[in-house]
Amino acid sequence: MHEKHCNSHSKHGSHGKISYLENPARKDDLSPEKLLSLIPISETDTVLDFGAGTGYFTIPAAKAVAANVYALDMDAEMLEVIKTKALHAEVQNIIPVHTDGSDIPVPDESIDLVIASLVLHEIQPLNRTLTQIKNVLKDGGHLVCIELEPKGESSHKAPRISLAGMEKEMKDAGFRVVEKVFPSKSLYVLIVEKQ
After folding, report:
1. Is 14 exposed, middle or buried (0-12, 13-18, 19+ CB in 10 A)?
2. Quick check: 39 and 61 in contact, CB under 8 A?
3. How many Cβ atoms sit within 10 Å of the Cβ of residue 176?
4. Partner residues linked to 137 by β-bridges
5. Rg value, the chain, Cα
6. 136/140 Cα distance (integer angstroms)
7. DSSP letter string, the chain
8. What's the mean pLDDT when you consider all of the chain?
9. What is the mean pLDDT of residues 67-89?
10. For position 55, which CATH number holds?
11. Taking the CB of residue 127, how many other CB atoms lie within 10 A of it?
C-alpha cells in the first residue's frame, strides 16, 4: 500500500508553493537558526531534510554540519531551487534526492538527524513513513517534527495533526519522545529518538 500525499499548495502550482515556503513571515515563527539551536545537532551529523521544499532548513543545516545533508522532496522543481541556493551559498554538502513518495532512497542506518517541517500531516498512512524514517536513522538518531497545531475543526484543504496525535503516531512507530518545544502559539516542535 502506498501512502497518499495531499499537497495543500497544488492549486497555486509551484510558484504559489515557493511563495509560501519563502515567505519572510515564517522566520518570525521559527527561523532556521532558532530551530538548529533547539535540536540535537553536531558538526559530524548526517542530516535528512524530509520534504525539503525550497531548502528553508536544508541550507542552514548544511552550513552547520561537515557531513552530507540529504534534501528529499517529491517535487523536482523544489530540488532545483535548493541546488541554486546551495550554489549561491557556496554549500557543497547537499545531496538532492527525488522520490515518488513510496520510499526514502537513502541507505538504512545512515542518518543522524531527520528534519520534517510541515510535511508529515500530508502523509496517509503516516505509520509506514515513520517506519521508513526509523529505518534510515542510526541508533540514537533523532527525528525533529515541526507542525502547526490545528485550530478547531480540521479541513481537507489543510489537514493538520495535533501534538497529542503526532506524539501517539511517534510512540506507535517505536520512537521515544525527547522534547516538546513551542516556538509560537500555533507551532510545535516534537523531537523524538530512535530506540
Report:
1. middle
2. no
3. 12
4. 111
5. 15
6. 12
7. -PPEE--TTGGGHHHHHHHHHT-TTHHHHH-HHHHHHHS---TT--EEEET-TTTTTHHHHHHH-SS-EEEEES-HHHHHHHHHHHHHHT---EEEEE--SS---S-TT-EEEEEEES-GGGEESHHHHHHHHHHHEEEEEEEEEEEEPP-SS--SSS----HHHHHHHHHHTTEEEEEEE-SSSSEEEEEEEE-
8. 86
9. 96
10. 3.40.50.150
11. 13
| Global confidence as pTM | 0.85
Q: Residue 15: count other Cβ atoms within 10 Å of its Cβ.
A: 10
- Tell me how far apart the alpha carbons of residues 181 and 36 are, in angstroms, rounded to a whole number: 12
pLDDT digits (tens, 9 = 90+) for 106-162: 999 999 999 999 999 989 889 999 999 999 999 999 999 999 998 765 554 557 899
Residue range(s) defining the domain that contains residue 122: 4-194
Domain count, the chain: 1
Residue 50's DSSP bridge partners are 72, 116
Do strands 175-181 and 187-194 pair parallel, antiparallel, or not at all (unpaired)? antiparallel
Contact 70, 50 (CB under 8 A): no
How far apart (Å, rounded) are the C-alpha atoms in residues 54 and 65? 19
